[in-house]
Amino acid sequence: MTVHASRVRPPALLALLGFVAAVVVVAVVGGLASASAAEQYASFARPSWAPPSWLFGPVWTVLYATIAVSGWLVWRRAGLTAPAHVVYAVQLLLNMAWTPLFFAAGLPGVAFAEIVLLWLSIVATIALFARHSRAAAWLLVPYLGWVTFAAALNYAIWTLG
Fold it and tell me: Of 2, 31, 64, 136, which one has the greatest count of Cβ atoms within 10 A?
């Protein structure tokens, strides 16, 4: 049994690294698109409940880790061909698109419409992931919460601006 376990671990570790890499690409694209995000954010008219700009980096770091692990957990149970991973990929692409829309393009209204689609895709991902792994689904709940908050902040900045 030890031999079998050692044959299983490297592919699982490689798959986890693949999920981490996918999430890192999303984070890097967002980072490149928002090189001056902290300065832009500081210049916006914001609601009193808006968090300081330094908070976004640590929050997203934790969330991206949970997003990667969540996808990996479902992969271990269902593989990449599961419809759940199609929706997972869509939410990653929507996640990646928000920052360029909001900061680089300066389109908070379009970014708000896009973040609503992101929110819906996260809900769909949670529902589909729950069929394969409750842990994977629960790992996405803080992400959904943060995107809910981010959508409200996006809307507030858009309407105050």
Answer: 136
Query: What span, in angstroms and rounded, lies between the C-alpha atoms of 14 and 10?
Result: 6
Distances (CA, A) of 49 to 27, 106, 145: 25, 22, 15
Q: Where are the domains of the chain?
A: 2-160
Q: How far is CA 97 from CA 15, 58, 113, in A?
A: 24, 20, 11
- Give the contacts of 34 (CB within 8 A, at least 6 positions apart): 40, 99, 100, 102, 103, 104
* Helix (H/G/I), strand (E/B), else coil: 34: coil
Candidates 67, 62, 57; CA nearest to 139 is 67
pTM tops 0.85, yes or no: yes
Q: Which residue intervals of 34-160 are DSSP H helices?
A: 37-43, 56-78, 83-99, 108-130, 134-139, 141-160
pLDDT single digits (tens) 5-52: 444 455 899 999 999 999 999 999 988 877 778 888 989 999 999 999
